[in-house]
From TrEMBL:
The chain crosses the membrane at residues 15-35. This is Outer membrane transport energization protein ExbD. It comes from Pleionea mediterranea. One of its GO terms (biological process) is protein transport. It is found in: Cell membrane. Pfam families: ExbD. It comes from the Bacteria.
Length: 137
């Protein structure tokens, strides 16, 4: 006797359970993802093509923050509360003064933020944040 093969009886894979699992995973990842925007510092970094100005009146004001939390303004150590007064005096002398905050990579973040807040309170809105040079470390 001859066996008849029916093409209708071929094994079919039902895709519905797999699609259900994919949609459940998609919903899980959407629900667990956080969509909040993190607040960050609005800083401008110096570009490499800036030319150095030899005129001391237009020279940038550098505030150095060491790894132990000392704040140096024009060679002297100052308190974080004195930053705004010093910046106000520099801004009064020259309104185009550029302020560069040079922080050591191991500097305390609270001290860096206190200095940046002092610079902004002193009238300069966008301080340039830079890494402290190797020779000053």
């Amino acid at each position: 006797m001859r066996r008849h093969r029916h093409d209708d009886d071929d094994a079919n894979v039902d895709m519905t359970p797999m699609l259900d699992i994919v949609f459940i995973m998609l919903i899980f990842f959407i629900v667990t993802t956080s969509f909040t925007k993190e607040d960050g510092l609005d800083m401008t970094r110096p570009s490499n093509n800036n030319t150095q100005n030899t005129d001391s009146k237009n020279a940038p004001v550098a505030i150095e923050i060491t790894d132990i939390g000392e704040i140096r303004f024009e060679g002297r150590i100052i308190d974080p509360r004195q930053v705004s007064a010093n910046i106000e005096a520099k801004m009064a002398a020259n309104a185009k003064t550029v302020v560069v905050v040079q922080a050591h990579e191991q500097a305390n973040t609270e001290v860096v933020m206190a200095v940046i807040d002092g610079v902004r309170d002193g009238g300069f809105q966008t301080p340039v944040l830079a890494r402290l040079p190797e020779s000053s470390r």
